[in-house]
């Protein structure tokens, strides 16, 4: 059913790698194009739209520059794996392993929690024409997540990322359609004079340094291409050859960064124009932190695409799971590589942890912030920044690395959630 390292995969050459630029862009973007785009308006309300969009541009540019500099280092040192790349900087490999594990588990937990609540509310609407009148219990949440993981489970056992490339296409297509629908619906509301005015308008800036620091991890959650950077690059090397893989990966990183940044800016910008400080603040049902709940259920394009979003986020689970499982299997001291059912065992253990995380941290903004401040800050910014600062040949690369390290450490020590950072109280 699934290709092995020596087998074939759909839309690839005989080695089982990626050959399509669009496939590589969507796979690299799949980590970012999940539920985070619809939680960002809440962040902009906490720190102001000017600071929020500024943070988006900063993280978008920084994450892209990091990937481009890492590619130069890989080419110069002829490194053959992410582990080899991390060996260029002392202790980077250990930090990389721990932070990748934490990032992937919490990111999948955030996704599963979001779509479980959305599906519960969608089912309630289907039966009663409304939602929010029934309590979503921990047992119901765990049951739905267990069903999701049962659907995603077989795809988690694939040992070739190219076999999941159509998942990347599906996620990107649905999220882009939903983003476009959200933007159009917001424009219609503003055009009808129903946009946010006066005290309900989102301020340009909130003079609160603590809010800025604690909100940064939620924006960081938006730019997570680094999580699948090496896996996509490795699949390109298999598909188009080593020489062609470098320029193809550079194009992939740039296009992915632009795609994610544009979608995040459009959705967050138009949503705060339409809903202002109420964006993502719906307490009805399971909507807190999710701007999609600001749209009425009789907005059928949004509602139907929300149902489609549930489906593709379930299918995205294996894409997020893939780098984590590969990392664990490649740890030599564990002795798992080459074992017949090792990938199955690691994937199932990760699913159990995801369920426990969602039961322990039931609030979506806290889950996203926890992911950004703990795992993503280290893996996506501190570790690659450290490698760039140590191994880059040019001054610019070292400067980018230094900025990345400072940014990641600031989020790590200052961005841990200490409650609800978006509360009005």
UniProtKB/TrEMBL annotation:
Q: Which UniProt keywords apply?
A: Membrane, Transmembrane, Transmembrane helix
Q: Where in the cell is it found?
A: Membrane
Q: What is its membrane topology?
A: Multi-pass membrane protein
Q: Does the keyword NADP apply?
A: no
Keyword Zinc-finger on entry = no
Give any GO molecular function from the UniProt entry.
L-amino acid transmembrane transporter activity
**Entry's transmembrane regions:** 25-44, 50-71, 100-126, 138-158, 170-191, 211-233, 253-275, 300-320, 341-361, 367-388, 395-416
Every copy of the Amino acid transporter transmembrane domain together lies at 20-387
Q: What is its main location?
A: membrane
Q: Which GO terms describe its cellular component?
A: membrane
InterPro entries with a match to the protein in the record? AA_transpt_TM
The protein's name: Slc38a7 protein
Q: What is the lineage of its organism?
A: Eukaryota, Sar, Alveolata, Dinophyceae, Suessiales
- Gene of this entry: slc38a7
């Amino acid at each position: 059913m699934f290709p092995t390292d020596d087998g074939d995969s759909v839309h690839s050459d005989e080695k089982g790698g990626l050959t399509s630029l669009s496939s590589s862009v969507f796979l690299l973007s799949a980590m970012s194009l999940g539920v985070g785009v619809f939680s960002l308006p809440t962040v902009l309300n906490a720190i102001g739209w000017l600071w929020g969009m500024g943070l988006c541009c900063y993280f978008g540019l920084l994450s892209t520059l990091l990937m481009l500099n890492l590619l130069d280092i890989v080419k110069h040192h002829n490194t053959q794996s992410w582990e080899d790349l991390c060996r260029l900087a002392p202790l980077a490999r250990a930090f990389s392993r721990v932070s990748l594990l934490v990032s992937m588990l919490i990111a999948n937990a955030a996704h599963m929690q979001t779509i479980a609540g959305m599906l519960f509310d969608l089912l309630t609407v289907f039966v009663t024409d409304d939602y929010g009148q029934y309590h979503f219990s921990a047992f119901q949440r765990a049951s739905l997540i267990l069903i999701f993981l049962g659907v995603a489970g077989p795809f988690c056992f694939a040992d070739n990322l190219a076999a999941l490339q159509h998942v990347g296409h599906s996620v990107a297509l649905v999220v882009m359609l939903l983003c476009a629908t959200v933007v159009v619906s917001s424009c219609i509301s503003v055009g009808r004079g129903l946009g946010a005015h006066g005290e309900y308008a989102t301020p340009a800036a909130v003079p609160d340094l603590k809010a800025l620091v604690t909100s940064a991890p939620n924006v960081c959650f938006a730019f997570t291409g680094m999580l699948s950077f090496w896996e996509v690059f490795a699949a390109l090397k298999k598909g188009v050859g080593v020489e062609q893989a470098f320029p193809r990966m550079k194009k992939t990183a740039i296009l992915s960064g632009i795609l994610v940044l544009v979608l995040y800016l459009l959705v967050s910008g138009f949503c705060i124009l339409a809903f202002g400080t109420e964006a993502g603040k719906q307490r009805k049902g399971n909507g807190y932190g999710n701007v999609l709940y600001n749209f009425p259920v009789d907005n059928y394009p949004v509602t139907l695409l929300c149902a489609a979003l549930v489906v593709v986020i379930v299918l995205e689970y294996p894409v997020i799971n893939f780098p984590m499982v590969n990392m664990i299997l490649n740890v030599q001291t564990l002795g798992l590589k080459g074992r017949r059912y090792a990938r199955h065992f690691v994937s199932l253990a990760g699913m159990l942890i995801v369920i426990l995380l969602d039961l322990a941290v039931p609030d979506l903004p806290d889950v996203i912030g926890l992911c950004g401040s703990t795992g993503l800050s280290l893996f996506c910014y501190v570790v690659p920044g450290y490698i760039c600062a140590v191994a880059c040949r040019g001054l610019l690369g070292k400067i980018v690395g230094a900025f990345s390290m400072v940014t990641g450490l600031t989020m790590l020590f200052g961005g841990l959630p200490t409650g609800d950072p978006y509360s009005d109280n």
